Amino acid sequence: MRDFGQLNTLGALILPHIAFSLPFAIWMLRGFVKGVPEALEEAALFSFISAWNDFLFAKSFIISDTSQSTLPMALLVFYKPDDPDWGGVMAGATVMTIPVLIFFVLVQRRLVSGLGGAVKD
Predict the structure, then answer these.
(1) Three-state secondary structure along the chain?
(2) Domain membership flag for residue 8
(3) Looking at the structure, do residues 44 and 95 belong to the same domain, yes or no?
(4) Which residues form a coiled coil (predicted)?
(5) Which of 71, 70, 88, 69 is CA-nearest to residue 79?
(6) Quick one: how far is CA 97 from the chain centroid?
(7) Which of 49, 63, 114, 119 could form a Cys-Cys staple with 37, CB 3.0–4.6 A?
(8) How far apart are CA 71 and CA 96, in angstroms?
(9) Residue 119 near residue 44 (C-beta atoms within 8 A)
(10) Which residue, 74, 76, 78, is CA-closest to 87?
(11) What is the pLDDT of residues 58-107, one digit of tens each?
(12) Does residue 50 form part of some domain?
């Protein structure tokens, strides 16, 4: 890191973690991902697209009143074409994930046990 001028930087911490942790995580998760049925992957893709469209529908059809806007629309407060506040956007996106993480922790056992019967061959 000294040769690259990265001492006392965040990059000096991030790069070794990526180099050592990422290959192990990929190796461990490969078997799990390989075992996910194709129909379940397609359902997840559809759900993701629906959630993403929530932003598009709100932006396209309705919401000019900020009290009625969805959370993805609220992130536009931080984005201005001339000077986007990327720190604000990322902080808002992180705060938006907290309720989802809490929900997942609460229903994790039921969710994982239910995946076994989600798709019947």
Answers:
(1) CCCCCCCCCHHHHHHHHHHHHHHHHHHHHHHHHHCCCHHHHHHHHHHHHHHHHHHHHHHHHHCCCHHHCCHHHHHHHHCCCCCCCHHHHHHHHHHHHHHHHHHHHHHHHHHHHHHCCCCCC
(2) yes
(3) yes
(4) none
(5) 88
(6) 8
(7) 119
(8) 7
(9) no
(10) 78
(11) 777 766 666 777 778 878 888 888 888 889 889 988 888 888 788 778 77
(12) yes
Q: Which amino acid is at 78?
A: F
Residue with tokens 């061959």: 121
* CA 45/CA 41 separation, integer angstroms: 6
State which residues form the domain around 66. 37-115
| Token couple for 103 | 């929900």
Number of domains in the chain: 2
Q: Are residues 53 and 94 in the same domain?
A: yes
Domain membership flag for residue 106: yes
Note whether 52 and 103 are same-domain residues.
yes
State the average pLDDT over residues 8-31.
85
Q: Are residues 93 and 51 in the same domain?
A: yes
Q: Which residue has the tokens 């379940």?
A: 40
